[in-house]
Amino acid sequence: MENSRPKILIVDDRMENLVALEEVLEDFDVEMVRALSGNEAVARSIRNEFALILMDVQMPEMDGFEAVELIRKEKRNENTPVIFISAIYSDDYYKIKGVNAGGVDFITKPIIDDVLIGKVKIFLEIYEQKLKLQEAIKNAKELAIEAQQADRAKTEFLTNMSHEFRTPLNSILLLSKTIAENAENNMPQEQAELATDIHSAGQKLLIMVSDLLDLVEIETSKLELKLAPLDLQSFIENLEKHYKPIAVSKGLFFRVELKDDVPIYINTDSRRLHQILRNLLSNAFKFTLEGGVNLRVSCNIDKKSGAHTGDALAISVTDTGVGIAEDKLEEIFKGFYQVDGGTSRQFGGTGQGLLICRELATLLDGNIQVESVEGKGSTFTMYFSSACIQNELQPVPAVFTEDRWSADNKNGLLEQLKENGKKRHGRKLKAASICDHDNIFCGKKILLVEDDMENIRTFKKVLSKEGFEIIVGVNGRQGLEALRNNPDVDLVLMDIMMPVMDGYTAMTEIRKLDSAIREVPIIAVTGKAMEVDRQKCIKAGADEYLTKPVDLDKLFLMIENLIIRDGS
Ligand code: ADP
Description:
Elements (H helix, E strand, L loop, with lengths): L6 E5 L3 H10 L6 E5 L2 H10 L4 E5 L7 H9 L9 E5 L5 H10 L3 E4 L4 H69 L7 H31 L8 E4 H19 L2 E6 L6 E4 L1 H17 L5 E10 L6 E12 L23 H5 L5 H11 L2 E8 L3 E9 L20 H20 L19 E5 L3 H13 L3 E5 L2 H10 L5 E4 L8 H8 L11 E5 L4 H10 L3 E4 L4 H14 L3
Parallel strand pairs: 1-2, 1-3, 3-4, 4-5, 7-9, 13-14, 13-15, 15-16, 16-17
Antiparallel strand pairs: 6-8, 9-10, 10-12, 11-12
Helix pairs in contact: 2-3, 5-6, 5-12, 6-10, 7-8, 8-10, 11-16, 13-14
């Protein structure tokens, strides 16, 4: 076993001096290493790390100063303290020379035992501290690496989990919706209602999965904001439209107040701001059993100067609900926290909404504050910095991209697509369920490239109900083959994560085919729901991108749009 005692190198060309030094220092629990010349000292320093070096100055061949200079070149002893011991070189000139050579102290001969013992004791203590510090740094580095690895594993796990959840959710949501519609009227009403329950439970699960993915995106800084001027009034009106029926159904009031002095536009990410307010309003309605909810938009203007103050704009949601105890007001912004664990049973929820809200608010250059009185109600306020105010700008139309919060964007996307559909076709938006002359989907051929059997069955069921003819490839390669053999395919629905050949490769290969079929419209349908995934799909050749679980209205409108665009 290696000796773990600290080592002291003692260097002197006379053996009796070395022995005398050892005797003086015999009470220290150290290992003494002797060297009878400068050369020997250098050689020893190559193999050992020393806590301290006691170096005689006057020696033949190589003096102590030279020896120390060479020892210092060795990494392991570059900072080892050196005490020079000398009888004749005790004036200042030599002391300075010694310090320049890397010595830290001087002792003159004849050595006074107590002085030597005192100095050695101090240097050994410093050495011990140094070892402890090195150990602590090593541990901290290891911990940091472990934490990084754990963080990466967590992110990977959550991203994969989100993907894995979406695929079965696709079947659950689509099938339960189809059953609940009871289109053929061949099921007792009670059973149809049960299917509605399954559908809404699936929706809740989807929101949880989306929440998790949002958190991952925020934590890993992958969340990209799309800043654009937003028309405040119509934004607030949309919220009012959405929550009014909820208020009515719960017997609550819902008042909306937009102060005159608020700016016309704010520069923000409308989808994210909507996500924040939707969460605050949903909570307000969820935790209020009597009374109601106020949504108020107001401006903070300095009365004297007329300028906006730091927090220029405030959107607040006030309710007359159960309220929150003072000592819980910070806790509620932590992940998975609910004031009363039991509330989840009474009110539902996952306890992540406010954490996401606060993180998003910060990203949007704002912050969220809460005031509450238990039993009386709460006010959550989102403040915006003056940088968000945009009085001069014209709003640009929102760009609609597929998102996980179908409710957020759905209306916009639907409106946009509906408009296109109406303009071009003048037909009803929802295809007739039988193949009548009004159904443009009738007989259109869709190639479904998907490896999950349940999803294949689900898609087949819902698509054939609309009149489509479906052919299937269970991986990218089979899809490609099917397309070569069926050049009359009108559209491809392409899953992404598949064995043998994934959807990205399949789409790239399709776009390289040497027949006209390479132009076939492709909708990428995937459980991978991050913004980067969408960009990757489009880059690989997709015309559109939809996340699982698929919103059927969106899917049909996209198909209609693509088929019309292609003039088929
Ligand atoms: P969730 O509502 O999904 O549980 P949130 O993060 O949105 O998660 O809220 C965390 C907790 O904060 C809630 O469970 C509830 O206890 C409390 N809370 C949030 N908003 C309100 C409100 N308006 N009134 C009373 N309690 C609230």
